[in-house]
Amino acid sequence: MIALTIDVTLRQQSFELQVRDTSSVEVLGLFGPSGSGKTSLLEVMAGIRTPDAGEVVVDGRVLFSSSAGINLPARDRHIGYVPQDSLLFPHLDVSGNIDYGVRHGRAEGAHRSTLIDILDLPDLLKRRVQKLSGGERQRVAIARALMTQPAVLLLDEPLAGVDRARRDRIVPYLLRIRRELHVPLIYVTHDESELNAVADRVLQLETGRVVKAGPPER
Ligand code: ADP
Ligand code: MG
């Protein structure tokens, strides 16, 4: 469970994102057509984009507040972000990609083993990333993002580049992250059946505004 306050106004040329929502969630889904502002909202949360006004609070930590003059840099936000076109390092194998940017102690080693188990990566560790399927790549990108033990993980349409049959096989990994790791997710998707499977609250966006908010079945 994570307490989220999202109050964001972001203007970019003719587009204006204006999202206001407060919730306690395990998985918050963001749903809406292309260009509705889903990626922009994730980038605001991650600290890649600075809103014009508003507030972003995650479990009581103020990440951004225009009124208080707070804007934490991305590296201090404890947020994991897997962008839509998440790139793996081609010169490293799967194992090297998972470890990228993380210094190892004993605690990290145990956490790493758990992630490798949950995302079903044991047989892929020595594999070159060019030899991975789309779904395998996404699992590696997710493991890499989770290595830093983020307070929340942002996933931007992680299944968009994956065909239907494989997509049906990756949803269970997201459920395992939710159930076994207790890492809250903010999850962007076009697919209603995925939302029903993983989200406990959904914000439906259209042209930068929330047009519906609630549990996915509504
Ligand atoms: P979604 O992820 O829902 O497809 P985006 O957040 O990527 O939507 O885009 C929302 C709107 O913002 C679109 O109209 C897009 O063209 C515009 N946009 C995205 N990035 C930029 C940018 N860097 N500068 C100006 N406009 C942008
Ligand atoms: Mg997008």
Which H/E pattern describes the elements?
A: EEEHEEEEHHHEHEHEE
Strand order of the largest sheet: 7-8-9-3-10-11
Q: Please outline the major beta sheet.
A: 6 strands, mixed
Strand content: 25-35%
Instruction: Give me the number of helical elements.
Output: 6
Q: What's the total count of β strands? A: 11
Category from helices, strands and their pairing: alpha/beta
Bound molecule kinds, no repeats: adenosine-5'-diphosphate, magnesium ion
Shape: globular
The whole-angstrom Rg is 17 Å
Fraction of residues in H or I helices: 25-40%
Overall mean pLDDT stands at 91
Short description:
By secondary structure, the chain is an alpha/beta fold.
Question: Features of this protein?
Answer:
binds adenosine-5'-diphosphate, single chain, globular, alpha/beta, binds magnesium ion, 11 strands, 30% helix, 218 residues
Overview of the structural elements:
- The protein is globular and about 45 Å long.
- The longest helix has 18 residues, at 164-181.
- It has 6 helices and 11 strands.
- The strands form 2 sheets. It has a 6-stranded mixed beta sheet, sandwiched between helices. The chain has a 5-stranded antiparallel beta sheet with strand order 2-1-4-5-6, covered by helices on one side.
- Helices cover 30% and strands 30% of the residues.
- It is α/β, with parallel strands linked by helices and 218 residues long.
- Bound molecules: adenosine-5'-diphosphate and magnesium ion (MG).
- Magnesium ion (MG) is lined by residues 38-39, 84, 156.
Describe the secondary-structure layout.
Elements lengths: L1 E11 L2 E11 L1 E5 L6 H9 L6 E6 L2 E5 L4 E2 L7 E4 L11 H6 L6 H13 L15 H13 L5 E5 L7 H18 L3 E5 L2 H7 L2 E6 L2 E6 L4
Parallel strand pairs: 3-9, 3-10, 7-8, 8-9
Antiparallel strand pairs: 1-2, 1-4, 4-5, 5-6, 10-11
Adenosine-5'-diphosphate binds next to helix 1.
